[in-house]
Specification:
By secondary structure, this protein is of the alpha/beta class. The protein folds into 2 domains: 175 residues, Quinone Oxidoreductase, Chain A, domain 1, CATH 3.90.180.10; 121 residues, 3-Layer(aba) Sandwich (Rossmann fold). The chain has 9 helices and 16 strands. Helix 2 crosses helix 3 and helix 5 packs parallel to helix 6. It is globular, with a radius of gyration of 20 Å.
């Protein structure tokens, strides 16, 4: 039986309900995908909690997936039934066996790219591209700070930054995750939630600070990340896993630091950037740069996947399998 995971209202995992689903007929410019795998991201948790409100409820969340095109609407020529595709971004609605999608969001997959790996890395891989190539151009001369370096996006940032030749300082919560971050190529690690981040980063950089700090933690961490950045460097705040971020006083950006608050969902609405970032991420996957360990859950167990992600017990990427 086909199902969708319906979010009844903003709140806890109890708001995620398994609902029977009939495949829908694509309208003009739309396609219907039968999912092979659906990515689970902190963005989904933000949608579930209501931090990023959805237009109406009940709703289906989920911003990335991979599968096979089952049907196409009128005026669709770029893909055909039987094509394997991957997508990310708006409109959300991925937590379902099948879904309708604007045809221009579908990126065709070559035979040598596995659907599960594509679904596991698409949103995170495009975010990594945005952070490393658009928000701040990382080069072999760069020293960067990556929080949650053993998490899904953190792993991709470490691996891609090392592919670019940068020096990477990562943060992790424990020794087990430190081993994972080292395996991804991190040069230095700050271990433990109670570590003196600023002091350790300054010691590792001989007092200079990092060129860019990538902060998906939020909460009180962003203020510390800014302190780790060198003059004329940048802190990029792209998530709030630890909760809302207190207001940042302008004085915190002295001397001569920059603060960026990028959004891959907003960036991906630009069709040129969307194709550019998706193509780069898939090519990096083909080169072995963006591979991730995967943990699978049945689609009906989406609530359990959210619990694992929120608790910080997951490394790599979580997938829902219809």
């Amino acid at each position: 039986m086909d199902i969708a995971i319906t979010l009844a209202a903003p709140g806890g995992i109890e708001q995620l309900q398994v609902t029977p689903q009939e495949p829908q007929t694509p309208g003009p410019g739309e396609i219907r995908i039968r999912h092979d795998a659906i990515g689970v991201n902190f963005l989904d948790i933000y949608h579930r909690r209501g931090l990023y409100p959805l237009p109406a409820y009940p709703a289906v969340i989920g911003a990335e997936g991979a599968g096979v095109v089952e049907a196409v609407g009128s005026a669709v020529t770029a893909v055909s039934p039987g094509d394997r595709v991957v997508y990310m971004g708006a409109p959300v609605g991925g937590y379902a066996t099948t879904r309708l999608l604007p045809a221009q969001r579908a990126i065709r997959l070559a035979d040598d790219v596995a659907s599960k790996q594509a679904a596991a890395m698409m949103l995170k891989g495009m975010t990594a591209y945005m952070l490393l190539h658009r928000i701040h151009t990382v080069t072999p001369e760069s020293t960067i700070l990556v929080h949650a370096a053993a998490g899904g996006l953190g792993t991709l940032l470490v691996r891609w930054a090392k592919h670019l030749g940068a020096t990477v300082i990562g943060t992790v919560s424990n020794e087990e995750k430190a081993a994972l971050a080292r395996a991804s190529g991190a040069d230095h690690l700050v271990i433990g939630r109670n570590a003196d981040l600023v002091a350790e980063v300054m010691a590792l950089t001989s007092g200079r600070g990092v060129d860019v700090g990538y902060d998906g933690i939020g909460g009180a961490m962003l203020a510390k990340t800014i302190q780790c950045v060198r003059p004329f460097g940048m802190a990029a705040s792209y998530g709030q896993a630890a909760g809302p971020i207190p207001p940042v006083p302008m004085e915190a950006l002295r001397p001569n630091k920059s603060l960026s608050h990028p959004s891959i969902m907003a960036a991906s609405t630009d069709p040129v950037f969307y194709v550019e970032a998706a193509t780069a991420a898939i090519e990096a996957l083909r080169l072995g740069v963006l591979t991730l360990p995967i943990r699978e859950f049945a689609l009906a167990d989406a609530a359990a996947a959210h619990t694992e992600l929120e608790a910080g017990r997951s490394s790599g990427s979580l997938l829902l399998i219809p």
